[in-house]
Each structure stands twice: as structure tokens, then as C-alpha cells.
Amino acid sequence: MSKRDYYEVLGVGRDADEDGLKKAYRKLAMKYHPDRNHGDKDAEPRFKELNEAYDVLKDSEKRAAYDRFGHAAFEQGGPGGGGGFQGGPFGGGFEDIFEEMFGRFGGGGRGGRGGATGRGQDLRTQVEITLEDAFAGSKTNIRIPSSVSCEACKGTGAEDGSSAGVQTCGTCSGSGKVRAQQGFFLIERTCPTCGGSGRTIKNPCKICHGAGRVQRERTLNVTIPPGVEDGTRIRLTGEGEAGLRGAPAGDLYVDIAVKPHPIFQRDGSNIFIRVPLRMTQAALGGHVEVPSIDGGRARVTIPAGSQTGDQFRLRGKGFSVLRSAARGDMYVQVSVETPQNLTARQRELLEEFETEAVTGGKVSGTDVYSLNAEHIGSIEDVMLDKSSGRVAYAVLSFGGFLGLGSKHYPLPWEMLRYDTQLGGYVVKLDKVRLENAPVAEEGWSDRRRLIDEYWATPI
User: Fold this and answer.
1) d(CA 189, CA 184)
2) pLDDT tens-digit profile of 260-280?
3) 3-state SS string over 287-328?
4) Cβ-count burial of 311 within 10 angstroms (0-12 exposed, 13-18 middle, 19+ buried)?
5) Reduced to 3 states, what is the DSSP secondary structure of residue 434?
6) Which pLDDT does position 75 carry in this prediction?
7) Partner residues linked to 375 by β-bridges
8) Contact yes or no for 118/166 (Cβ under 8 A)
9) Among the ranges given (110-114, 149-153, 238-242, 414-418), the one the predictor scored with the smallest mean pLDDT
10) Edge-to-edge order in the sheet of strand 252-258
11) Counting Cβ atoms within 10 Å, is residue 376 exposed (0-12), middle (13-18) or buried (19+)?
């Protein structure tokens, strides 16, 4: 009875990939599984047919053979059988077909030395450094547990330490590989006798048991060049695992991890630093000193009117460049801080500043309002403090407010508050205090002492 095409069994095309084969097989296997089809005599044979097809097509080598020779690739002894193709449509026999298809598999055709060289494995470790070390470069010691060449036998694996005791493996004839025929396929494996080295030792070393290497912990000095970045990998040739019986050692790869810095941020060869500014510094301008990555100090000119987020560039003050004498730039970003916990004097000054900012410096003629937002008059003039030159009193003109008639009253400046919505000043005082206040008449400056005493006296 002829077998159905394996692709037809799985319901896929010949160009189906591994994922497509797996999905098709799972779907049909669920459908025809005997446990789910009690009483259906056709389910079990169909299920076996699916398994047979998938077993061949999921294996790339078997699939290649099937695509080329069809079901004939698995006849004449079948999988696991001892027979081969002798003559017939394949001419030179099974091994000739294998050499034609897989001649380079494992390192060449028959007679070639395809065994493993025994080279030591590569190792990998990580070293954490500071940003300053990454800038200037550094040297550090690392401890690596690894296989090293056996001193007793000088890495040969022989007890006398000479190569005379090392012989060609009789099982693989020095190739390091053995082949076993299974049906159409010739399976190549690492030689179990010599472990792939192609050699055996008559009198193995008692220390390393013929391996030519032993396990030790080594201390290595690693030089980290200036300019390395987080994730840079340094290769130390020949510092990996020792090779088997004198074979070359592997390499050691050191991955660099750079710790985050509390002040600096790095972007390639450039360095960024954020500097706080007092409000007055930002408004008036000036100079500030900032630390640099090389351990020094840099002077930065801050122009008047600087804002949060403004950035100033210092050429050549940035990070070192790997394998170069050049340096990047340093960028100073400013952040204007709002003052907190003001003293009475500081608050007074800021209130004056706010008044000047809102009114543009012009006070006379500005409207005055009561606490309930009723318009009551305007500012006629101001009285200055002789010692400081600051505004001490505002001379208010009230047009009949509180039944007082049109009079002029010197009022302490701190009893006025500017209201941006009203566009004028609000008086912070009560009726009694205002009714008894000294009136500013002609020559009112002569009454300054009386005015000061009145407002200095508590209610």
C-alpha cells in the first residue's frame, strides 16, 4: 500500500515553515487522537500517520532527504535499520549520497579531521565603575573562577608531562567524530572515547585526570580606557577557559557597567549638569562656579533675566572620547528657585517689587478701594523714609469716605495691598483708626513726627 505524501497528510504546502508545520500537526493531532475518538477505527491509523509525517518534516535533515528522494529515503532498512543503499538509483551507495548532501557537515568529507579542537570556552564577567573612572580611565582587579592549564602535566594530560604518552584515538582514528548509520541517515557524533580531541592518553595525569586543565580562581588586572560607556565590552584574548589537553584557551569578555552620578548626566561625549539659581541671581545676572567631571571648577556667566531651562555651553569641558584625545562639551542648565520662609524684610521688598512690576513704577493717581471693593479715592503722593529712601507713607485722598469729607491722610505703605483684579490698592484698616489719623495739610511734612508716633502706637 503506497504512503500518502507527508505534506498532504499535514495539509500544508512544501514551503511551510517550522511554525506552520507545528500548528497544522497540533490541530490534526487533537482531532484524531484515539482518546477523543472512541469507537472510530480510522482515528488511530490517521493519528499514527500524522506522527510519522511530522517526525520527518520537523527535522531539517530528514525533511531535506524526503524532499529529494521521497519515501524511498526511509526504506531499505528504515529508520534505525542497518541496511544502506547499495547500487540502485543512487549509484555509489549510501555514504556517497550522504557525502553529496552533507559533505561539509562537521568539517569535511570522509577522511577529514572534523572533530572539536578542544578550545577553551569564552568567559564573561561584569565590572562596575564610577562616571569619573569612565572619564579618566582606570585599572581594576577581578577574580575569575575558571579552568587553567595543569602545571603537573604542562597541559598535555599525560602523567610524565610529555607528548609521548598521547596517542591517536583508536575509535575515531583521530577525527574526533564517529558515525552511525540509521536507515538512510548517517549520524555523526562526538567520539565518546576521546571526547572529540582525537587523542587518548595512555597514562593520564593524576592531578587533572588527563584533561590537561584544572579549576582555579585567577586574579586579573583589567585596564579600562578613558571614554568607555555603559555596556562597553572589553575582550581579553586567551584569558578564558584553558583548552583541553593543550588546546588554545578561550577569551574573557568584560562588560562595563557605569554607576549613575548624583550630579552629572552623560550623553555620548557631552556632560549635563543642573544648577540652582536664586531668583535675584536669575533676574540680575552674575557668575556662578560649577564642578566639572575632571574634578575642577568652571565659571559660568549668567545673563540677566535667565529662566529655568536656559542652557549654557562650555566647550571642551565634557566627557573624554574613547581612543581619542578629544573631549565633548559641558552644558549647564539653570533652575530658578522660588524663595521660601521669607523674613519680614524680604517679604516687604518683594511686595514693593510686585507693586513696581504691576504699576510700572507709577503710584500717584492709582485708585484706592475698601476691603469690600468699594472705590473710595486715590493716592495723591508718597512720603519716603529719609534713611532708606523707601516709600514709608502713601498720602490718600478720600472723597467723603466714612463721612470724613475730602481730606488727605498719610497711611503706612504696608497697610496697602495691590489687587490685580481691581487694578488698584485695597486699604487694610478700620474706621476708628482712619477717623483719628493725622491729616496731611499744607506743610504736612512738618508734622512727620506726629504722623510716625500715631501709626507706631498700637490700638
Assistant:
1) 16
2) 999 999 999 999 999 999 999
3) EEEEECCCCCEEEEEECCCCCCCCEEEECCCCCECCCCCCEC
4) exposed
5) helix
6) 65
7) 369
8) no
9) 110-114
10) 123-129, 252-258, 233-236
11) buried
351 sits in which H/E element: helix 344-359
* Dist CA 238 CA 245 (whole Å): 15
Using only C-alpha atoms, what is the Rg of the chain?
47
Torsion of CA 81, 83, 85, 87, to 10 degrees: -160
Buried b (16+ CB within 10 A) or exposed e, 105-123: ebeeeeeeebbbebbbeeb
Rounded CA gap, 36 and 30, in Å? Answer: 8
Amino acid at position 112, single letter: G
Cα-based angle 424, 427, 429 (whole degrees, multiple of 5): 175
C-alpha cell, 74: 526511509
d(CA 50, CA 15): 18
Q: Which residue has the cell 510519522?
A: 52
Q: Are 244 and 117 in contact (CB under 8 A)?
A: no
* Distance separating alpha carbons of residues 418 and 272, to the nearest angstrom: 42
| Cell numbers representing residue 412 in the block | 503706612
Give dist(CA 134, CA 70) in Å, integer. Answer: 62
CA-closest candidate to residue 61, choices 196, 184, 179, 181: 184
pLDDT tens-digit series, residues 188-214 = 888 887 777 777 887 888 888 877 888
Specify the pTM: 0.50
202: cell is: 595512555
Residue 331 pLDDT > 90: yes
Mutual orientation of helices 60-69 and 94-102 as an angle, nearest 10°?
120
